[in-house]
Specification:
- A hairpin with a 4-residue loop joins strand 19 and strand 20.
- This protein is 4% helix and 42% strand.
């Protein structure tokens, strides 16, 4: 069974049973849910809890991976992140909240409402203590936004923190004011030029990233290599709209709001899925970005949206669906091929902003990508969700 984390009024783990024979065939069957409701997890009021969610590894050493979710509007938009220690069935065992009340974060998060928790990601152990660590995006913190690396202890406490920002890992003027650095986060695995024993590779979104020549806002992504000694940035590349391969990204699309990575083409090298939920006045789309990792260059983009690649959902998702608010790449139906799941929080349902999770089974190769099957997971399509989901599906993670 594949577990997908969907963010809604509470966090919901959706179990998907796999029935497949070859790439893109078979079915994805809604199987069961585990709802982290208010009886097990405390959600700050009016905080947009679940804007981001990630499985981050086994923090407490009990043999079961743990999770984290962001609440970027908590504490008047200072933001918070909740770490959830999981039981084997996906239910919550205990929680730990990281916020400006956490001593190691107080000074940093008290300077302004930075929306800490807009994105979260796990890159494994980044300081050599055998405890997985946490990356958190705070895109409104400081002039440009920051990514905060939080070194965790086994009780989900904080031993120390560092940042990725101008002058700390990046150049003094790498980022421009207002770019929302940290809008999206993803760990990138499977790149042959990276020694993963000593380094991690991450993708960071800038949903308001500027074209460095025209200064117009398109959205950007930054790829950074992190040391597993102290989490420091050892190399980085910024892809803004002025660079080769970025031409398909349109003005004001929110490109970089969500990022995922996976070997979609089956070549042994990952590509990136990058959400652009504001495209076409919030209809949204996802870009599958092919990379030359040796040259650190974009070699092509494939657009995923309604009507493309054989994906024609019925009923349609609607003009304000915000496709790409959340993205995930994984072999969801166990057919040996990587598939795509995406969040569409504005998708039309029984009412506005109920949203849906779209699971797209892909049949892909070195020169082609096609959607062979589509499963809609939503309030009306899955009655078991009706006691749990009362608002938008924003993010998806496996």
């Amino acid at each position: 069974m594949t577990w997908v984390a969907m963010t809604a009024a509470a966090i919901v783990l959706v179990g998907l049973a796999q029935l497949a024979a070859s790439c893109g065939t078979g079915q994805v069957v809604f199987d069961e849910i585990v709802d982290w409701d208010n009886t097990t997890v405390a959600y700050p009021t009016a905080s947009r809890s679940g804007t981001s969610v990630a499985l981050i590894g086994d923090v407490d050493g009990d043999g079961t991976g743990d999770a984290a979710f962001g609440s970027p509007l908590a504490d008047l938009s200072d933001g918070s992140v909740t770490i959830v220690m999981l039981n084997q069935d996906g239910s919550a065992n205990s929680t730990s909240v990281l916020s400006k009340a956490t001593s190691a974060l107080t000074t940093m998060l008290s300077t302004q409402a930075g929306q800490f928790g807009t994105s979260v990601g796990g890159a494994g152990d980044l300081n050599g203590d055998s405890v997985p660590d946490l990356l958190v995006g705070a895109p409104v913190l400081g002039a440009t936004g920051k990514v905060i690396i939080i070194f965790l202890t086994t009780d989900a406490g904080v031993s120390s923190v560092t940042t990725i920002e101008n002058g700390v890992g990046l150049g003094l003027t790498t980022l421009v004011a207002g770019e929302l650095f940290g809008s999206g986060l993803a760990t990138i695995k499977g790149v042959s030029t990276i020694n993963y024993a000593t380094h991690a590779l991450v993708g960071i979104g800038l949903a308001s990233g500027q074209d460095r020549i025209t200064t117009q806002i398109y959205g950007s992504i930054l790829i950074a290599t992190l040391s597993r000694v102290d989490g420091s940035v050892t190399a980085f590349t910024l892809f803004d709209h002025s660079q080769s391969g970025m031409a398909p990204v349109t003005l004001g699309s929110g490109f970089g709001s969500a990022i995922a990575a996976g070997d979609v083409r089956g070549t042994g090298s990952p590509l990136l899925a990058v959400g652009a939920p504001l495209y076409d006045s919030a209809r949204g789309r996802v870009f599958l970005v092919d990379m030359d990792w040796t040259l650190m260059a974009i070699t092509g983009m494939t657009i995923v949206e309604e009507g493309a690649l054989g994906w024609t959902p019925t009923p349609a998702l609607g003009s304000l669906s915000q496709i790409g608010t959340g993205v995930m790449l994984a072999d969801i139906n166990a057919d040996g091929c990587v598939d795509l799941a995406l969040g569409a929080p504005g998708a039309e349902e029984i009412g506005p902003n109920y949203g849906m999770l779209a699971v797209l089974l892909l049949n892909s190769g070195p020169s082609s990508i096609a959607v062979e099957a589509f499963t809609r997971i939503s309030y009306s399509a899955n009655p078991a969700l009706q006691s749990a989901v009362t608002s938008t599906v924003r993010d998806v993670r496996i």
